[in-house]
Amino acid sequence: MREIDVVISALNTDGTTTLSDSMPLIIEAMENEGIKRIITIGTAGILQSRTSPNTLRYQSSESKRKSVRAAKEHHKVYDILKQSTLEWTIVCPTYLPDGKSVGDYRVDRNFLPEGGVEISVSDTAEFTYNLIKSNDYIQSRVGIAY
């Protein structure tokens, strides 16, 4: 990592601990190179619950997922980033079906936009890319949905 300003991580959990195992290594490399900004792709499960204060969505009745394995892995990364000195943002999409960009999506700091049930991969990527030049959501999770 040389001569870069921002790291974007879209690592998948894929049933392993690759995500949480790699984040400390990414942070260390960034700190060694003086890179301050990281944007990661998480899951809506690690956003705050609207119905259960002080609880994340995957820990509440808001989550429709039968398995919380991926959310727990993303939760570990969220905790790791909170303890770092980096300027981090975690983009937290809900269900990601294949499809074309719609462009008319909603975002909410630390919460899933109310009534949001899906967002395309391409709209998630567009929002993430636009964060490179934005300081709007530093030290925040960002829910994104239509």
Automatic annotation (TrEMBL):
One of its GO terms (molecular function) is oxidoreductase activity, acting on the CH-NH group of donors, NAD or NADP as acceptor. It comes from the Bacteria. Transmembrane segments: none annotated. Residues 2-133 form the NAD(P)-binding domain. InterPro entries: NAD(P)-bd_dom, NAD(P)-bd_dom_sf, Polyketide_Oxido-like. PANTHER family: FLAVIN REDUCTASE (NADPH). This is NADH-flavin reductase. The lineage of its organism: Bacteria, Bacillati, Bacillota, Bacilli, Bacillales.
